[in-house]
Amino acid sequence: MRGARRGPLPGFGLALGFTLSYLGALVLLPFAALLLRALQLTPARFWELVSTPRTLAAFRLSFGAALAAAAVNLLCGLLVAWVLERYRFPGRRLLDALVDLPFALPTAVAGIALTALWDERGWLGALVAPLGIRVANTPLGVLVALVFIGLPFVVRTVQPVLRGLEPALEEAAASLGASRRQAFARVLLPELRPAALTGFVLALARGLGEYGSVIFIAGNLPERTEIAPLLIMIRLEEYDLAGATAIAATFLAASLLLLFAVNLLSWRQRRRVGAA
């Protein structure tokens, strides 16, 4: 009897066991603990904790700002990636390195810098204040912070795809009579769409969980500029473990459902592009 056929790489069982144990301990176990804690609350008490006007306002701001920031980053990230990959100009390498600045900066430092920049007496805040536009201590400040920290996710996921697309594709489309707009929409965009959606999902996930850079510029006004992660921290500081658990469980469940829906859309788009 011939032995079982072995794969080219040894240690699959050990590596798989380590991976599952690692993910279980670091990811699944905290989620399970949160779920068990939430199940200790009665449905009436749970609904009472998550349906207060302050909590609902925090949910609306967190999800709305994260979605809006991810959409802005999707458009701006595509443009930035296109400029960095398709054009050659002095300072291009420096600009490319600056894209990673939100990754390198501690979130608290980013929040303080954005607040100093967009405050009514800051460089940019003073320019828009005469127009009646306030950024710091408003929901717009939350959006600005989330756009800042989410842009690299779109740029870095789109750049490798753009780098792999030869300019000859655009030249071939032009030789067949396609305009630049048609060449981009029918030749390049279908190839870029899966990577762009992946960047959108990553920026959205980062925006939903962002805390440090937002609390400085938001002002943290209840029912106006208070985000859900901050409200969870406030409940913990008040020793209201039940309130923090209910808000965290609801926020986690809604975030997972939203990310699952967007990932499903991205997966279907990849299948469509692969089938084509």
Describe this structure in words.
The protein starts with 11 loop residues before the first helix and ends with a helix. It has 276 residues and is mostly helical. The chain is built from 13 helices and no strands. Helix 6 (107-118) packs parallel to helix 11 (212-218), helix 10 (180-209) packs antiparallel against helix 13 (241-275) and helix 12 (228-237) runs antiparallel to helix 13 (241-275). It has helices spanning 12-39, 43-50, 53-86, 92-98, 101-104, 107-118, 123-128, 139-164, 167-175, 180-209, 212-218, 228-237, 241-275. The longest helix has 35 residues, at 241-275. It has one domain: Orthogonal Bundle (MetI-like fold), CATH 1.10.3720.10. The model has no long low-confidence stretch (mean pLDDT 86).
Q: What's the N-to-C terminus distance?
A: 45 Å
Number of domains: 1
Q: What's the helix count?
A: 13
Q: What is the helix content? A: over 70%
Instruction: List SSEs in N-to-C order.
Output: HHHHHHHHHHHHH
CATH superfamily: MetI-like
By CATH, the architecture is named Orthogonal Bundle
Main beta sheet strand tally, sense and closure: none
What does the overall shape look like?
A: globular
What is the mean pLDDT? 86
Strand content: under 5%
Class from helix and strand fractions: mainly alpha
What is the name of the CATH class?
Mainly Alpha
How many beta-strand segments?
0
Roughly how many Å is the radius of gyration?
23 Å
**Poorly predicted residue ranges:** none
